[in-house]
């Protein structure tokens, strides 16, 4: 063994390096194509329409806020403070 590499060894190293580099470039190209395809905006069947949402939102803003200021009582989840205040008065009779 004289310590000198064989003549084909540097060519083999260059070939392996180039094959690895090409493999990485191909993988990046495939990933880029997949990501760009996934992020492209396409309308989905049955999705909300922007003009319809805008009309609904405008209709909600135009309506005056009717109520006692007690949203839980309006939904029927909790008793209204008016009902609680009237209950002791009815019980005193």
Q: Would you mind describing this structure in some detail?
A:
With 93 residues, the chain is an all-alpha fold. It has four helices and no strands. The termini are far apart. The mean pLDDT is 77.
Low-confidence parts: none
Number of DSSP strands? 0
Q: What's the rounded overall pLDDT mean?
A: 77
Structural class computed from helices and strand pairing: mainly alpha
Q: Total number of helical segments?
A: 4
Strand fraction band?
A: under 5%
Biggest sheet architecture: none
Q: How far apart lie the N and C ends?
A: 117 Å
- The H-and-E topology, N to C, reads as HHHH
Q: What proportion of the residues is helical, as a percent range?
A: 55-70%
Q: How much is the radius of gyration in Å?
A: 37 Å
Envelope shape: elongated
């Amino acid at each position: 063994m004289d310590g000198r590499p064989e003549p084909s060894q540097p060519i083999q190293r260059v070939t392996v390096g180039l094959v690895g580099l090409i493999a990485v470039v191909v993988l990046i190209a495939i990933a880029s194509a997949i990501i760009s395809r996934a992020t492209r905006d396409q309308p989905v069947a049955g999705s909300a329409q922007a003009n319809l949402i805008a009309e609904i939102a405008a209709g909600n803003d135009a309506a005056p806020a009717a109520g006692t200021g007690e949203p839980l009582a309006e939904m029927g989840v909790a008793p209204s403070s008016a009902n609680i205040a009237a209950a002791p008065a009815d019980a005193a009779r």
